[in-house]
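Sorry, can you check?
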Amino acid sequence: MRVLATRSALVVGYFCLASLLGACDGNLPQTTVAANPPASSPTSPPPTAQAAQPTPTAEILAARVNDQGISMAELDREVARRLETIRSFGNPPPRDLNQFRNEVLDLLIEQALIEQAAAIQGISVSDAELDAEIAAIIEIAGSRENWEAQLKADRLSEAEYRANLRAALLTQRMRDIVTAAACKNVEQVRARHILVPDEGQALALRAELEQGADFAALAALNSLDVTTKQVGGDLGWFARGQLLQEEIEIAAFSLPLNALSAPIKTELGYHILQVLERSTERPVDEEMCYRLTESTFERWVQELISRAKIEKFL
């Protein structure tokens, strides 16, 4: 039973280039959005029987993100591609296809928001940069023929592949910008806890601790957290956004050093928490930096969603 957990971004809209080596996980966000057909100019002459003009067919939208449409055809293609990938790995299809379609649509919406944010900041990927990336990918694939065969297997046209690759590169550039300071001057705490099933036991243990009982010994005897009880309940160092139980995190960053918390209720039970150390100068290790980067980017994407005008038509 762990209190610490990685809070990864649910979606960052990347394109799996590893598919060329047979290792793609199927997360291939479709990001090209066809515009609605333009309305006829009010000054255009009316069509005649001798020279009839074709009438544009309005595109059916699955969603609109701010002023950008995501077509139903685009959603259908992405759903079909992901289902095919699931089948190709021998996994069972989703039990609720409607929910699956909604989840895929959410990914397309998030990707659209990331691309819109990139455009606002003037971030772009040139055709020359795309050509260079594709040339490198073709080299990895062994030949252009191998690459084209993989595109066919992934049900992608070259144009779709380029669009997805451009989206992936835009996403990575925005990620680099958004998370540039995620691992700098990070407030960290080191804390320990004892987890018990009811409040009465938590209060009794807290009273013992106030009378001078050894925290580590009580944790070893009583804590339900099997991953920390043998090390005195020590949770180690962590930063904001790294704990699975938000209530513990809030208390850890507000308690004075060495003070004992009141019983803190979570879905796991009741915790007695003690903060042992606090620092903003402690180096961030690679694992923690990864977690902070992921949580920072996830929060940024959620902020985009909260500020956007999103309409779904499913």
